[in-house]
């Protein structure tokens, strides 16, 4: 299969359409690559901080991901994609359409036809974003001091408003993968003032129209009282808040367990509550990693990374990665498929790690191999015990 010449012509036309401002859009299809559930990519112009870029919408089975690139980055990326990942691409320009295709017999075709577009779509502004949680007339947003009585977001609450939408956007595709057919029981461990808890209930009940109940668990009685009052005023009949610790909460019957920024071993307690409940989905965003760091500092094991960990900041980061890495392994031991990814909670906090465990009965796991990995990690880093390992009894 000689792909070089037709691919070069397609990429050349793509680049020229950008240079001449005749580019309308581009689509990539018939995906043959290795990334799970990716189907198509759609490309269009966007305007970010007054600079034109190309917006790539990656269409997956259950979610869309948008990434923005400079024109040159986009051209190079499409070039790479058409060398084995996508077998068809269509370029839409002002006066023509150009289709590149790799057929089943490995023959390459390049077809061009004349069209007459009325004009080129204007780049979409980066601020024109539809939020899953719309401000509007929502009593809970007003009582949480995010919006005024008319539903306008306060200037000093813009970050918090973006934050709760960001969380809901992250959780949305995960929630949609949970098997339907029964009421959904959600518990938010360490719910605080309830910003996310309220927004999540609103999304599940009023946007997805699910039969759901949500409970926020919080040890500060004044916040529990406040949040229950707001829930009642908002008419959220199946949302309530309970006073108590994560460790003492009875999680039986919980389908979705969430714990965002639970400090140190409280994250382990939350994960364990989800495991013992057999939750379909466990989502945690850990905060602080003191327990494992103390173990590493106490034992002072000499290994290949010692030249890094003699610096406190690197030791802290290593403790974070090791703690969360072992947490993911323990979730896998108990039959969960895990994902660990980075996100930014709002404009004033650093990047965080989110650990997601999805229950999958089809997911066969070699438990002995997982235990071996945990043991080797502990020995290498000088960790006497990991709190989640200890309380789960593995």
Q: Can you walk through the features of this model?
A:
- With 394 residues, the protein is α/β, with parallel strands linked by helices.
- It has two domains: 4-125, no CATH class; 139-392, Rossmann fold.
- It is built from twelve helices and 15 strands.
- Strands 1, 2, 3, 4, 5, 6, 7 and 8 form an eight-stranded mixed beta sheet that branches. Strands 11-10-9-12-13-15-14 form a seven-stranded mixed beta sheet, with helices on both faces.
- β1 (23-31) and β2 (38-48) form a beta hairpin.
- α8 (290-299) crosses α10.
- The chain is globular, with a radius of gyration of 25 Å.
Characteristic terms for this protein:
single chain; Rossmann fold; alpha/beta; 394 residues; eight-stranded mixed sheet
What is the number of independent domains?
2
**What is the CATH architecture assignment of the largest domain?**
3-Layer(aba) Sandwich
Strand content of the residues, in percent? 25-35%
| Overall spatial form | globular
CATH superfamily of the largest domain: Vaccinia Virus protein VP39
Along the chain, the helix and strand elements come as HEEEEHEEEEHHEHEHEEHEHHHEEHH
Q: Note the quaternary state here.
A: single chain
Q: Would you tell me the structural class of the helices and strands?
A: alpha/beta
Q: What is the CATH C level class of the largest domain, in words?
A: Alpha Beta
Average pLDDT metric = 89
